[in-house]
Amino acid sequence: MILWQTLRFAVGGLAANKVRSALTMLGVLIGVASVILLLAVGNGSSVAVKDSITSLGTNSLTVSSGSAAGGARAASSVKKLTVADAKALANDADPAAIKSVAPVVTTTGTALYGNISYSPGSIVGTYPAYFETSNQKVAKGEYFTNDDVLGSRKVAVLGATTAKQLFDAEDPVGKQIVLGGTPFTVVGVLQAKGGSGFTDPDDVVIAPLPTVQNAFTGFGTVNQILVQAASADSTTAAQSEITRVLLASHAIADPSKADFRITNQASLLTARESTTKTFTVLLGAVAAISLLVGGIGITNIMLVTVTERTREIGIRKALGAPRAVILGQFLTESTLLSVIGAGLGVAAGMVGSHFSIVGIKPVVIPESVLGAFGIAVAIGLFFGSYPANRAASLRPIDALRHE
Hints:
Blueprint: H1 2-15, H2 18-54, E1 60-65, H3 83-92, E2 98-107, E3 111-113, E4 116-118, E5 122-126, H4 129-133, E6 138-141, H5 146-150, E7 155-158, H6 160-167, E8 176-179, E9 182-190, E10 204-208, H7 209-217, E11 224-229, H8 235-249, E12 260-264, H9 265-308, H10 310-318, H11 323-352, H12 366-392, H13 396-401
Parallel strand pairs: 5-10, 7-9
Antiparallel strand pairs: 1-11, 1-12, 2-5, 2-11, 3-4, 3-8, 6-9, 7-10, 8-9
């Protein structure tokens, strides 16, 4: 009965100042929703990175120029990767360890189709092995072939985004586009991979390596060499073979002075996950400040409430209301403010997680929902305890004299 009366008095007190109570709950709502959404954005970014990396396959390795030891050699002494390096890997490496090799050059340019002009995210020149190594599936048409590479044919495979931008609902296969003043015939369209963040893996044009070199980059170095290990279990052996062949190709006797780096998906995934975890923690810390601000708001509002209702407190204490009843009433009011605000914040956070934020699809962490709600309620109790204790400590005679 006493609990019910305390709750009734608390609700009545909050209802007497609807605008003030609503603004206080809004502060808690913003804090809880911020925690849920920002942690969801960090988690969504981590999931997107993981999906993007694992989509390349666990037996894919990337070779790029640069010192594996952190750049001890001068940039001028580092030999860049070439098509000859890729051919050496394809011909001299153990076929039991390495299945396929694809040199890659990347550039940018404008694609034209009729009166439509569009600049894809990247233009890639490579070999047909690139499609299998990077786990690219064709949705329409077909890949270009080794004969297309040998003949430097002007053919291209489009990513789903590029195809949509240039052709909309029209079938691109067999149509002709112009890249850098050179006409290319579209032979295929890739299946959409999708992606979250600032880069779109489907915004690409892929063409035979010699054709792209002739039209854009020149016949010099390549950006990367993609290598597909024979299996996931032979990734280590493939990495050893790559090191052996390229050290010989670059005339380097000391492996510690290698002027190339080899990255496999497992190490890349570990590095990216570590980065995104730090990012998520940072977002959570920023959002937690909102909860703290909401708690301070509860303290301020409750102090004003105690001041306004000092005479009421004096009358109740003069009629015999014990200290615990007064303390319980004001603690209940502050707790109700935080509980209702936190509940609305959870609802707002869950609704907001259905929308992309800065290009990232949020993925809600269940623990963050429970944690944010629990912390908000605890903050309500903590920050409401001082005003409640102050109200309960008032002497009846002093409270009745208050103007």
